[in-house]
Amino acid sequence: GKLAAELTRRLSSNGLSVASLPITADSDTAVAVFEKFASAECPLSVLIADEAVTATDETYLPQALTVHRVLQAWLSRLPEDQLVRGTLVGLTNVGSDFGWTSPVLHPASGGIAGLCKALQREFTALRVLVLDAPVGEPAQLVATALQRELDAETHDLEVSWIRQRRRAVRIVERRPRPLAEAAPRRGGSWIVT
User: Fold this and answer.
1) Mapping DSSP to helix (H, G, I), strand (E, B) and coil, where does residue 174 land?
2) What kind and span of H or E run contains 150?
3) If 90 and its partner were Cys, which of 14, 23, 130, 160 is the partner (CB 3.0–4.6 Å)?
4) Chain-centre distance for alpha carbon 190
């Protein structure tokens, strides 16, 4: 698609070896295409899933399994020294705010985000970024946002960009309000955990 083509062009111009794989319900074909890229003399630096999974309910699971199989194949072939320098990017379109306030248009994007976060826990040396952008955002703007994130000193896991405005999901510490002391009520049901 347009986004994959724009990302491939930009990242290749920075000297990276880029592969853009079609994500379909046929995971065997996608893995075979990946194997062709992976067996080339130049080591693969960046793997782009061509088109975010925007499938219907009937095709979502096979496409999600394709993404999973290709990522497994890529990570199993990546040498340890490249894993430390590597970055896995999941591009999603959950509505540009990870579904917090806007309706979720593509639930499969939530699956991609979850898979990326799970891989970050499993491969702690690997930098993982989930970039959420709204459906219809121009490919050039999304590519620019991704380039900014890859060049940034900060390493936020979940970032959204909408109309060139950045948002990041972070845990905010809050002190609990003090509770007034009170004696337990008599009667009723109690659950102790």
Assistant:
1) coil
2) helix 139-151
3) 130
4) 42
Q: Which residues contact 43 (CB under 8 A, 6 or more apart)?
A: 17, 79, 82
Tokens of 123: 């491969």
Q: Which residues of 160-181 are buried (b: 16+ CB within 10 A; e: fewer)?
A: bbbeeeebeeeeeeeeeeeeee
Sheet holding 165-168, edge to edge: 87-92, 127-132, 158-162, 165-168
Q: What mean pLDDT comes out for the span 54-67?
A: 66
* Higher pLDDT pick, 60 / 6: 6
Asked if residue 93 lies in contact with residue 130, where contact means CB atoms within 8 angstroms, the answer is: no
- Is residue 23 a contact partner of residue 51, using CB atoms and an 8 Å limit? yes
Query: Taking each helix axis from N to C terminus, what angle separates 27-38 and 57-77, rounded to the nearest 10 degrees?
Result: 30
pLDDT digits (tens, 9 = 90+) for 79-131: 776 666 667 788 887 766 677 777 776 777 777 788 888 888 888 888 888 88
pLDDT > 70? residue 138: yes
| Long-range CB contacts (within 8 A, 24+) of 31-36 | 31/66, 31/69, 31/70, 31/73, 34/70, 34/73, 34/74, 35/73
